[in-house]
Every structure is written in structure tokens, then in C-alpha cells.
Amino acid sequence: MAEPLPVVLVTGFLGSGKTTLISALLAQPGMGETVVLVNELGEVAIDHHLVRRVDERTVVLASGCVCCTLRGDLQDELRDVLERRARGELGVVRRVVVETTGVADPAPVLSTLVGEPVLRHHFVAEAVVTTVDAVSGLSTLGRHPEAVKQAAVADTLVVTKADTASAAEVTALEGRLRALNPVAPIRRVSFGAIAPDVLLGGRARPVVAPGPEREEHGHHTGEIRSFTLVRDGPLDWDAFAVWLTMLLHSRGLDVLRVKGLLDVGEPGPVVLDGVQHVVHRPRHLDAWPDDDHRTRIVFITRGIERDAVLASLEAFVGVGAGV
Amino acid sequence: MCPLCGALLTEHWSDPEGGGARRGRVLRTRIVRRVLAGFGVTLSDWAGTAYVLHDGKGRSEVVHDLTTLWGEAERLAGRPLDPLDPTLVAALRRSDG
After folding, report:
1. Which helix H or strand E contains B70, and what residues bound it?
2. Cβ neighbours of residue A20 closer than 8 Å, sequence gap 6 or more
3. Residue B42's domain spans which residues?
4. How does pLDDT run across A17-73, given as a tens digit for each residue?
5. Residue of chain B with shortest Cα separation from A317
6. With an 8 Å Cβ cutoff, are B81 and A246 in contact?
7. Residues facing A36 on adjacent strands
8. Terminus-to-terminus CA distance in chain B, angstroms?
9. Which band of pLDDT confidence, cut at 50, 70 and 90, is reported for residue A298?
10. Does B31 touch chain A (CB under 8 A)?
11. For residue A31, with 0-12 CB atoms within 10 Å meaning exposed, 13-18 middle and 19 or more buried, which class applies?
12. What is the DSSP-derived secondary structure letter of residue A253?
């Protein structure tokens, strides 16, 4: 089977510059051969690329869980891309970019890519890129939970229209974004001008090593907390899997993001990456990206405290060591 | 497709790559049993292809991965299963080793 096609999800609140970013991105060398699926056609036309409009339609699964809802529209469109590519109608396709509506929850899109039995073999979620308006972003984050969620699940945060905001506004916004999502690098852009490799491949990037302050105290912004669990010594994968699946079953809606490097007793770490109930297939790296070989897991939660998560994990690991 | 029950089998993110799958299932089954001990539900491995949950009233449920397991276990237990519940965490600490 051919290598899975990378899918880049571009999300961000209404008017935050998603279409401008995509248009500028596609104009860059090496970004041809891209299929773009958009929920809403923006004011900026994207020329010379196949742009398909997707009418948002969701398929509610038996579980009734919002984040595990499959996006039926996206299912159909992605299957259509596969079929048309197989028939030779699309030429060479190297990447798919999905632009969501401004108020969309990115989790069902990821759920569709990771959980749909056919699509999971043909596509891979390469990165979630979230745009945030430099001028209005801070107030948007304060008023709209959808915007908070979009920022929390990002692999890369793009502060747009940076040239129109004051330095103080940008600094305040970036501080808020870092507190919300410590694992995503923040990039400032104006008119979408940014190199593609800065945005793409977000999931392949190693986890940023957390500093001591974040290890101990984490960050709180309203109900949202981000903290890092750091552990010495190998972590039993089976005990961890039992624990995390139970945690996500019980509290998945409040675990906005879990991302980390796990020492499972192999030469390199296992890369863990999850959004609510959706967990990407863990990747085994041949070597650690830095000298710190401890297990480091970043959590972004809604109302769940670090101490409770740590105590629970240690209890499960203790059981695993005793069976 | 599972030849026994006809279920469509798909990979779960927690399944080990390559070797170690059998040992992993045995360990997972043991750990889940400890977790469910206080809820009147137990778990057994079905020929390495599925898990079977049982309650004390003769009910059983076949599940294929850890994610679906918790929902069915909760249904059989008749109450929420929360790994952050301090009572459960304390019980697991007493039972380890």
C-alpha cells in the first residue's frame, strides 16, 4: 500500500486568517499537488488548486460523544479524493489541507482520520495549525470556548495580523497561548507569509522539554490547566495503556490534549499524542531527541488537577508491577 | 474479520507493534481485573482475540479493545468508572504487590 497522504488541519476562529494563510502557503515552492477541502469559501480565492467545498455534516456514533463524532462530510470527500486519485483525475497528490469553519471543533476531524476504518489506512494527520488574530485573539479566547479548544489541540499556533497589533497585545496573547498549550510553538505572521516547513509536520516534532516550573505547578487559565508529568525509570506500557484508556473513557472530554515522550525501556522513546478520546498511533523513535531520557507527558485539561492525575497513574503502574 | 465472532477487528492505538502482544494481553487482563475488583465485574481473555467481561449476575460482554472495554464494564458495574476517584486509587495502592 502507498504511504498515507498527510492531512494538515487548519483551524482558527472566525476571521482569524485561515484562508489567507492557506493561500500564501500554497503559493510557496513545493506546495503544489495539494488538495484543499474547505468548510466555507473565504473571501480570498485560492487559485490553481483543487478546492472542494464541504458542507458540514456529522455522523453521531452510538457513544453519543461529541469529540468521537465522525465527520460524514469529510469521510465522503476524502474517499472521493482517493477514488479520483486512483482514476488519475487529480494527477499527483502529495498532501490534503482541510480548513474548518471558524467555530468548528477540530476533534471530530481528527477522529475521522484516526478512527475511520478505511481512511486511517490512507491518510495520516500531519499537523493541526491554529490561527489566532493578534488584535482580537485575547478577547476571543476569553469569550468563546471553541477558540480555546482550537488553541489547545494545535501542533502549531499562528498569530496572524501581527503587524496590525501593538507589541504589548502580541506579548499578552502569546503568554495566554503558551499557558493554554505549552507543546505548540507560536509563530507570528503577516499576510500569511511563513515557510511551509514551519507549519507542516507538527506531529513529527518532538515534545518541547518542559521547564521545572511547569513540572511542579503548571499553568492555569480559567478552567484550563496545562501541566507536565515527569517520571524516572521505564514505564510499563500495558499498565499505562489500561490507565490512559480508562482516563479518556471517563474524563476524555476534559482531557483536551495529552502529548509526550515515554520511556518504555527501549533505546528510544514512544511518542504519545492524543486529543480528547482520539489517540494517534504511538510512534517508536530510535533515539531520544535530547539528553533528558525521562518520561514527560504534557496534559492540557479542563478542571483536572496534576496531583490527581499523577496519583492515579502511579497507582496503576504499581498494580502493573505487582501482577 | 474475527473468524469466531465475525467482528470487524481493527488495530487499537495501545496494541504493541510486532512481538509481545500475547504477554501484553495477559498483563492487561490482570491489571483490569484488579481495577474492576471492587465493581463486581471481572475480565478474561478470549483466545487472544477478544476480552470477555463478566458480572456476578451471569451477564457477559465481548469487547475487542481497551477503549470499548470501559464503557461495557461501566454498564455491567452500574456505576461510573473513574481512574481519578480517590477511593479507587487508594484501593489500587493497597492491592499492588
Report:
1. helix B66-77
2. A42, A44, A160, A191, A192
3. 21-95
4. 888 888 888 888 877 788 888 765 444 444 445 455 555 454 444 444 545 566 777
5. B96
6. yes
7. A51, A97
8. 38
9. very high
10. yes
11. middle
12. G
Q: Residue B80's closest chain A neighbor by CA?
A: A250
Q: Is residue B78 part of a domain?
A: yes
A104 CB neighbour count, 10 Å cutoff: 22
ipTM score of the complex? 0.90
pLDDT in tens, B44-72: 998 888 899 999 899 999 999 998 999 99
Domains defined along chain A, listed by start: 5-204 (3.40.50.300), 212-322 (3.30.1220.10)
Distance from CA of A259 to the nearest CA of B (A): 14
Pairing verdict, β A123-133 and A5-12: parallel
- Going through chain A in order, the beta strands assigned E by DSSP cover 5-12, 34-38, 50-53, 58-59, 70-71, 95-99, 123-133, 156-160, 186-188, 219-221, 224-231, 255-262, 270-275, 278-279, 283-284, 295-302
Specify burial of residue B94 (Cβ count, 10 A radius: 0-12, 13-18, 19+). Answer: exposed
CA distance A135 to A158: 13
CB pairs under 8 A between A and B: 96
Smallest CA–CA separation between A147 and chain B, in Å?
27
pLDDT band at A280 (very low <50, low <70, confident <90, very high): confident
pLDDT tens digits along A214-229? 444 566 667 888 999 9
User: Chain A residues with CB inside 8 Å of B10's CB?
Assistant: 117
From the list A271, A297, A301, A16, the residue with the least C-alpha distance to A180 is A301
| Residue B44 counted as domain residue | yes
Mutation target for B interface from A70, A245, A278, A309: give the one with most B CBs within 10 A: A245
Strand residues in A2-72 grouped as ranges (E): 5-12, 34-38, 50-53, 58-59, 70-71
Q: How far is B57 from chain A (nearest CA, A)?
A: 23
Find the CB nearest A308 among B74, B84, B93. B84
In-domain check, residue B13: no
d(CA A152, CA A146): 10
Domain count within chain B: 1
**d(C-alpha A182, C-alpha A134), whole Å:** 18
Task: Tell me if A241 and B27 make a contact (CB, 8 A cut-off).
Answer: no
Residue B12 lies in a domain: no
Whether pTM > 0.95 for this model: the answer is no
